[in-house]
C-alpha cells in the first residue's frame, strides 16, 4: 500500500524545484521532507529523485508522479461530487503545448471550455518534439506534440497539422536574395530559431540543398510572436505558420522564399489513459476544436 503522505512530499519537491521550497509549501522542515522522500524510496526499493538543481524524477519517479496526479484529480472530483461541505471545486490541469500551437490555435480552442467549466490550465511551453518529456516525467496530464507514439500509460490522438512557409520581409529579400533563394545566399542570410533545440529551419534547408548542411548565422528568439516580429521587421528569415502570414503574402510585406519548401507538422494530443472527467472533457475539446482550427 502506498503512503500518500510520503508521495505528497516527493511530488512537492518536484513541483517546487527543491527540498527547501517543498518544506515551505507543506509547512514542515526541510529535514522532514528529506526523511519522507528517503522513506518512500526505501519502501519502494528504488531511487525516485535525481538530486540535481532542480531535482528531477527517475523513470520510476516519473511513473509514480503520473499515478499520484491521476489519483489527485479523481479524488478531487469524487469529493466534490459527494460532499456538501467541500469548498467550491475549480479543476486545474497542467498541459504541455508546443510554442507554435500556443501562438496559432490552442488558446482559442480551449477558451470556451475553460471559462464555462471553471478549469484553470498551467501551460508548459516548448518545441513540438520536446513537449512529450513533460508528460513522461509526470509534470503534465496531457500534451500537444509531433510525436506519434504514446508513452506507456497514455493514449495519442491525431489533432491535425500545422502548415509552414519559409518567409522573409520584402526588404530582407531585396538585400539578401536579389538573385533568388540559392544555397550561397541562404548560408549568408541570418535565420531565426526558437531556441538551440529548434532544428526545424535547418531540416528544411537540408531538404532544399542537401549536403553539406547549410548553417546560416542565427537569431534565437523563444517567444513565437517576437520570432514572427523579427521576420516582419527584416532581421531574419524563417518558417512561420501559414495562417499567420496570409495578409503579409497578399500585400507583399512578406515573401514566400521557395513554395516547394512549404511543409507541415502533424500534431497529436497525448493524455493519460486513466482520466478524470475534467481531463476527458478537455481532451475532447482539444481534439475537436484543434482539428477545426487547423483544417
What keywords describe this structure?
295 residues, Arc Repressor Mutant, subunit A, D-Maltodextrin-Binding Protein, domain 2, 7-stranded mixed beta sheet, two-stranded antiparallel sheet
Describe this structure in words.
- The longest helix is centred in the first third of the chain and has 24 residues, at 59-82.
- The termini are far apart.
- The mean pLDDT is 92.
- Among the domains are: 1-86, Arc Repressor Mutant, subunit A, CATH 1.10.10.10; 162-264, Periplasmic binding protein-like II (D-Maltodextrin-Binding Protein, domain 2, 3-Layer(aba) Sandwich).
- By secondary structure, the protein is an alpha/beta fold.
- Strand 7, helix 10 and strand 8 (218-220) form a beta-alpha-beta unit.
- The strands form three sheets. Strands 3, 4, 5, 6, 9, 10 and 11 form a seven-stranded mixed β-sheet that branches. Strands 1-2 form a two-stranded antiparallel ribbon.
- Helix content is 47%, strand content 21%.
Describe the secondary-structure layout:
Layout lengths: L3 H13 L2 H8 L3 H15 L4 E2 L5 E2 L1 H24 L9 E7 H6 L1 H12 L2 E7 L5 H6 L4 E4 L8 E16 H7 L6 H6 L2 E3 L6 H10 L8 E3 L3 H9 L5 E4 L4 H6 L2 E3 L6 E10 L4 H18 L1
Parallel strand pairs: 3-4, 3-5, 7-8
Antiparallel strand pairs: 1-2, 5-11, 6-9, 6-10, 6-11
Summarize the structure.
This protein is α/β, with parallel strands linked by helices and 295 residues long. 47% of the residues lie in helices and 21% in strands. The protein is elongated.
